[in-house]
Each structure stands twice: as C-alpha cells, then as structure tokens.
C-alpha cells in the first residue's frame, strides 16, 4: 500500500477494495467512551462557546451529526464500526485492564509501558459529574441526546450511561 502511505489519504477517498486490503494489514483498535462523558469532557475543555452545560448541549443538538465537531459526534458516524471490523474495542474506564491485555497480545511487557491509571477514581468522578450535569438538562434535551446517540448506545455496552433508556 505504498501509494496510499505517500500522502495523507482519508478512507472515504478510497475504493472499497483498497479499504479492505489496507485495513486487513493492520491491527485495528477502537477506543470508546460513554457519549455523555465525551460531552462533559468537551464542555470542560472549553470547546463549547456557551457558558452553561445546557446551552452547550443545545449547540451540539442544533449542529446535528453531519456538521458537529468530532469531539461530540456519535462514534458510529466517525469510526464506522459496522464497516470496519476492529480487532479490539477498548472502553474508557477500563483502560489499565484492557491496555494491559492488548500489550500482552502484541507480545510487549505490559507493566512497564502502561501509565499509572486510576480507573475507579475516573469512574467515580464521571458518575458524580454526570449526575450534576444531567440535572441541568431539560427533559426534552435528555430525550434528544438519547436519540442523537442512539446508535452509539446500541453498538457499545454503555449500560450505565445516563443517556440509556
């Protein structure tokens, strides 16, 4: 696939046969995160221009799936998990455990390469933040967000997400 590596090429610019051949030669890893947690992180990083979380969420909803930022677009529209057969799906919140497994499968010494991750603290913090931020939203916004991320919630096991029905 030398001609494909010579310049930056988007998968959408390639033919299906080229995509299949290229992707078949890679180990494909998809990192996924609860869509509501992604919204919170994006808001806290200041990527929204609105002062409140509720108005930021409205900005996201108004942008739709085609015009929105990659930071908050549904994962299924960005990563194409139905088109691309990923070898591994790594869930945020279980990074230490899953990255260790992934490194061992690749034949690498997992312990020395992993940063110190405190998954349980991250999960607790996001649970608390989710409760606070979710309470700021109107019933209509909650319903619209669940619909906006419907395919992400169906494709990945985010069973404890605030957006799950």
Automatic annotation (TrEMBL):
Organism, scientific name: Regulus satrapa
Name recorded for this polypeptide: Carbohydrate sulfotransferase
Q: Does the keyword section mention Zinc?
A: no
User: A Pfam family this protein belongs to?
Assistant: Sulfotransfer_2
The answer to whether the entry has keyword Repeat is no
* Location relative to the cell: Golgi apparatus membrane
> In what way does this protein cross or attach to the membrane?
Single-pass type II membrane protein
PANTHER family (alphabetical): CARBOHYDRATE SULFOTRANSFERASE
Query: What gene is this protein a product of?
Result: Chst8_0
* Species classification: Eukaryota, Metazoa, Chordata, Craniata, Vertebrata
